[in-house]
Amino acid sequence: MVTRFYTHPIFLEHITPPGHPERPDRLRAIERVLDDEAFAALDRAEAPEGDEATILYAHPQEFVERVRAMIPETGIARVDADTTASPKSWQAAVTAIGAANAAVDDVFRGDVANVFVAARPPGHHAEKTTSMGFCLFNTAAIAARYAQRQHQAERVAIVDWDVHHGNGTQDIFWDDPSVLYCSTHQMPLYPGTGAVSETGVGNIFNAPLAPQTGSQAFRDAFLSRILPALDNFAPDLIIISAGFDAHHRDPLAEINLTEDDFDWATGQLMQRAGRHSDNRLVSLLEGGYDLQGLAFSVAAHVGRLMKG
Ligand SMILES: [Zn+2]
After folding, report:
1. Per annotation, catalytic residue among 125, 185, 247, 276
2. How much is the pLDDT for 308?
3. How far is CA 131 from CA 51, 124, 157, 167, 272, in A?
4. Coil, helix or strand for 231?
């Protein structure tokens, strides 16, 4: 059984302003590192066209139309203080959703061991009715609901190790006990949410990390909080919101992880997927803004996924 890797050239055409950290070169750095012969066995597939109707699994129609109306015909339109859209951003965002949903199909069909999706724009900051933090739609949230509607998954867990709290995912599932949301993130940091006291209906587990902490604090959070929550929830599918901006080289935060930590955390989640989810594990790229830190971290993450 192989690890599938989805990406698509359209993801390079979501253009952000010069100097913006969430840039097409991030995906080029990932493609380059995965070109190594160590990844020859990766099952590369082009992301399929997404189904716009599935956006409604996590966002109301009126909001979807508002985002559509913000897409410019030329140039770059500002969506919020740090979120922008270019002419191809709609197609990129919908294709990102298509890739995530296809990854869910793949693991439920059992054709592949697990899947990594390298797409942009990212998704975890997008709330039900707000695009923000470089994100237009919440791809992970849509994929979780897609698994429930199309594959009769009863319980889906989203584990988010991006260094920023996934306020959007938390917002969407705040009162939905069928989805577990677990997050490690730096606090204080953008977007400001993610306190331990934010628990939804008992389905939200936030594990904030203090600035300048690293491997030890991250692994402690997994061992003491996230993995027990997963064992208790026994999900039918685990989705990783895989941001790599907690890497020590990242310019947007002050958490000092190394690629070994992502290797370790991936292994822990694979073990839980084996225990509860018939190995169903889908990983979706979120942040990660230092190109070398991102590339090495993705290599460690995908290398671990491929070990089955
Ligand atoms: Zn982030």
Report:
1. 125
2. 85
3. 19, 10, 22, 11, 32
4. helix
